Amino acid sequence: MGCCGQKRKEWSQNIYNSSTEAETIDSGNMQEHQLRVFEYTGKRSMKIKGIVTGNIYYFRYPDHKIEVPYEDSFAMMAETDLKAHAKLDNRSKK
């Protein structure tokens, strides 16, 4: 009959070995996906500072769209007067 201590030791070694293996991610084309577009839905204008980059984003008028780096996008999604979009079309300006 096997000992519980041996099985526990074997199991913990397997867990340790599998958790130390690193995944490789190809970041060659990641820059394209690093921007998100936000549209201002408020009535006047709004300035907001990016949490990560420290950039100041100035939405000058209603429906104004600005591309925002991915790092700042999560905090901006919490703003009620901003609406996130997938991509910026060619007609919109920063």
Automatic annotation (TrEMBL):
Protein name: Uncharacterized protein
Organism: Candidatus Scalindua brodae
Taxon lineage: Bacteria, Pseudomonadati, Planctomycetota, Candidatus Brocadiia, Candidatus Brocadiales
